[in-house]
Every structure is written in structure tokens, then in C-alpha cells.
Amino acid sequence: MATNFLVHEKIWFDKFKYDDAERKFYEQMNGPVASSSGQENGASVILRDIARARENIQKSLAGSSGASSGPGGDHSELIVRMASLEVENQSLRRVVQDLQQAFSKLEARLSTLERSSPTHRATAPQTQHVSPMRQVEPPAQKVATPAEDDEDNDIDLFGSDEEEDKEAARLREERLRQYTEKKTKKPTLVAKSSILLDVKPWDDETDMAQLETCVRSIQLDGLTWGGSKLVPVGYGIRKLQIQCVVEDDKVGTDLLEEEVTKFQEHVQSMDIAAFNKI
């Protein structure tokens, strides 16, 4: 506001020039005054400084006249923010008033419900009037008889723990027994092997059908015979190649060779052509 006022005010910036001219005129007319010359010089200097300051102010005001809207814009923005805050404050006040009204209504409903409920009437605390001068006597202590002392001594405080220990031991034994039975009933995996035997005769005149019959006549626990065929060796001699499946824990290759080579009239030797685990 002050800056706008100074813009439109008319200021005499050249007053010091007229003052100097007036002073010189009176000096020429009346002669110079020696005592007041220093004061007048100081006053003229001050006046010149004031005039320069006013001139600078006017120039700055003229240069910043276009930018004078800045503070006004900030002021208007501040006014807008204050207005929005007032509106928000009013809305919050209305919300608080609504909440207060709802809370008061809820309290009224609760009070009416409590008054109408029969349980509230039944459980209402009753005041007891006790005379201030009445002295309350302490309750008489009951003297324990020897018979009651014996009954108290007979009570075993740790009997429940012993019963629990027995029950836990019984359950543990029962579970161990069930586990053992389940383990024994579980079928065990039997290791088996597939063996291909080469049974060689003495010569080409050996009856190979009789030789195969002799070999198949061997019956052992864990031994099962399979297919067979005659394979030529040379010079008209053929060997018997027969398949069998054995259980490793019951029948071994040494036992099998011993049983086959017992037929010395037909069998010269026995070799294992192939051995595979099943």
C-alpha cells in the first residue's frame, strides 16, 4: 500500500539546487556568514542524500511496478487457504456435532434397556447398613482332633503321579508291541538271481534229452527251472543251455554245480554263462 502511494506522489527532487541558488543569492546580497557556513554545508549534503534516496526509491518503484502483483498474489493465495481452512473447520464441527448427538442417543437407548431388563433389577446392589459401634468378632478356629490329623496324614499327594507313570509305561509297552507285530507282518524282500547254465556232455553220442531230464530232476528250496535249448559246440557235439532262478539266501552257484555234476554218466562239466540279479 505504501509503495503504491509513493508512486503517485509528486516529490521535489531538485530542491537542493534551488536551495543552493537561494543561498548564493543571499550571500551576494548580504555577504557570507562564517559561523553558519559549516552547518549549511552539512544541511545541503543531507538534503542531497535525501533527494538521491527519493530518486532511487522512485526508480525502483517504477521498475518494479510490473512485479508489484507478487505480494498481492501471495496475499490472495493466503486468503484462499484461510477460507478453505474455515470451510473445513466448519465441516469438522458439523461431524463432531453429529457424533455427539449419535453418542447421546446411544447412551439414552442403553439406559432405557438397562432399566427395562429384569436382570438389572435382580442384580442391583443393595446397601447394607452397619452400625459404626458394632464390633465384628473373628471366626472361631476349629481345633483339629487326633483322628482328623491321622486322616490328613493318610492322604497321598503323589499318588496321582505314580498312576500317571504306570499309565504312560503301559501305553509305551502297548505301542512297542504293536510296532513289533507290524514289523513282523511286513513282507521281507527276497533277493533272487537269474542264472544261465551251460551243461556240456562227454561226446556227440550222449543222449541230450536224458541229460536235460537229469538236470531238471534237481529239486531244491528256492530253485526254479526255466527254458532250455541245445547249442552246437563243434564236431557234432551240442551243449545244454538252461535257465534257472534261485534265491540267493537258499541256493548258491557252488551247490548248483555240485548237484548238476553228480550225473557223471551224462555231464562232463557245467559253466555259468550269465548271472543277473533280479
Please give a structural write-up.
- The chain is of the alpha+beta class and 278 residues long.
- The protein has helices spanning 2-8, 15-30, 37-63, 69-116, 118-122, 146-154, 159-185, 208-216, 253-260; strands at residues 192-200, 223-234, 237-247, 269-277.
- A 4-stranded antiparallel beta sheet has the order 2-3-1-4, with helices on one face.
- A hairpin with a 2-residue loop joins strand 2 and strand 3 (237-247).
- The protein is elongated and about 180 Å long.
- Residues 129-133 have low confidence and may be disordered.
Core attributes:
278 residues; alpha+beta; four-stranded antiparallel β-sheet; 4 strands; 15% strand; elongated
Topology (elements, then pairings):
Blueprint: H1 2-8, H2 15-30, H3 37-63, H4 69-116, H5 118-122, H6 146-154, H7 159-185, E1 192-200, H8 208-216, E2 223-234, E3 237-247, H9 253-260, E4 269-277
Antiparallel strand pairs: 1-3, 1-4, 2-3
Helix pairs in contact: 2-3
